[in-house]
Specification:
By secondary structure, this protein is α/β, with parallel strands linked by helices. The chain contains eleven helices and 16 strands. A nine-stranded mixed beta sheet has the order 1-4-5-15-14-13-9-7-8, sandwiched between helices. Strands 10-11-12 form a three-stranded antiparallel beta sheet. The relative contact order is 0.13.
């Protein structure tokens, strides 16, 4: 049964520039959004195969706006400028307003490709608030996105693991606030915590061999010499090296089917450099249902506070997308001006290859 017939939720697919007709992937619900080269403002129409199609501005006009917005928001000072606010208003009108009229239940599943592949839609600001303050946004990855019935069990009832391999006196910078981050998480959910020398590749492979509820990894994410994203784990004490890098391709070959949520508390874990899969996408390929990652560099202290707000809601029964919206809304309403900035809360995104069925 199509998703649209059971709930007011939709999936939007934003294709590469120039695509002129909707091509439905197997298992996808009926509503999509495509670029179709429309010369003027957005409008809604029906396609011949029954899909709802939103025609956006011509991609050639949109691309420089999108590129400049992404550059400014990833700068700690760029999003304070008048130019940034003008771009946000313009892109809200062009990209989000057509969606707004359809997302009646305030949950949006977006598929973005081409120049919008890593675009932070929920950082756009409308007339009265940011998208993130009002909508629960999930980004869909992969050409085939299926509907699935998610577990109704609270996350606290499953197998939970926390990895914090980074400490002082290593060949990589210490993550000072990650120790507190791990303590907060462990107080919210019952979890097996692996710190320092306990957080090895062997332990990781063992813990993820069976389905888990939550896997939280607080570490560094870097590119190896070939440019591939990699997560930092620890080498055993007898090794001559202290850091063991687990690459995205290695992660994608693991078997994690049935696992519910991976949280990658590391910089740019949801952004894949050209020609490479991101770390977040690698966990999806391995079978994890949802992955919380980041699109750009994140501040260590802000990550601590964001993690706390996220797990506060996860611990009381919220699903991941609702917990994420709560964390972002709490930052937007924070008494600390620096936390209100979309540069700080904007990089956190929830990725999935499945649309959860509502029952």
């Amino acid at each position: 049964m199509p998703i649209g017939s059971t709930r007011r939720q939709f999936i939007a697919g934003l294709a590469a520039a120039g695509l002129s007709r909707a091509v439905q992937a197997e298992g996808e619900p009926a509503l999509k959004i495509f670029f179709d080269g429309a010369p003027s403002a957005a409008s809604i129409r029906n396609s011949s195969d029954g899909n709802r199609v939103i025609a956006l501005l011509n991609a050639a006009e949109l691309e420089p706006l999108v590129s400049r917005f992404q550059f400014l928001i990833q700068s700690s000072e760029g999003e304070e400028t008048d130019e940034f606010h003008q771009l946000s208003t313009s892109l809200y009108s062009k990209l989000w307003r057509p969606i707004e009229s359809l997302a009646k239940d305030r949950e949006v599943n977006l598929r973005a490709r081409g120049m919008l592949r890593d675009f932070p839609f929920d950082t756009l600001k409308g007339p009265d608030c940011y998208v993130a303050a009002r909508y629960r946004v999930r980004y869909l990855v992969g050409m085939r996105t299926s509907e699935t019935r998610r577990s109704q069990q609270p996350f606290s009832a499953g197998r939970n693991f926390v990895y914090a391999p980074i400490s002082a006196h290593l060949s990589v910078p210490e993550l000072f606030w990650s120790r507190r981050e791990v303590s907060i998480l462990a107080s919210r959910l019952p979890a097996r915590v692996r710190r320092g020398l306990q957080a090895t590749r062997a332990a990781f492979l063992s813990d993820t061999a069976s389905p888990f509820s939550v896997l939280h990894v607080a570490t560094h994410a870097m590119r190896n010499r070939g440019g591939e994203p990699s997560l930092a784990l620890r080498m055993p004490p007898e090794s001559k090296r202290d850091i063991d890098w687990l690459t995205a391709s290695q992660i994608s070959r693991l078997q994690m089917l049935g696992s519910r949520l991976a949280v990658l508390s590391a910089c740019a874990s949801a952004r894949g450099p050209s020609g490479h899969t991101s770390l977040a996408e690698a966990f999806l390929k391995a079978g994890v249902a949802e992955v919380l990652g980041t699109r750009w560099t994140v501040d260590d202290l802000a990550t601590l506070r964001f993690t706390q707000a996220f797990y506060d809601r996860l611990a009381v029964g919220n699903d991941a997308v609702a917990a994420l919206r709560h964390a972002k809304a709490s930052f937007i309403a924070s008494d600390y001006k620096s936390f209100q900035s979309p540069h700080v809360w904007g990089p956190f995104v929830l990725l999935s290859s499945q649309v959860p069925a509502r029952v």
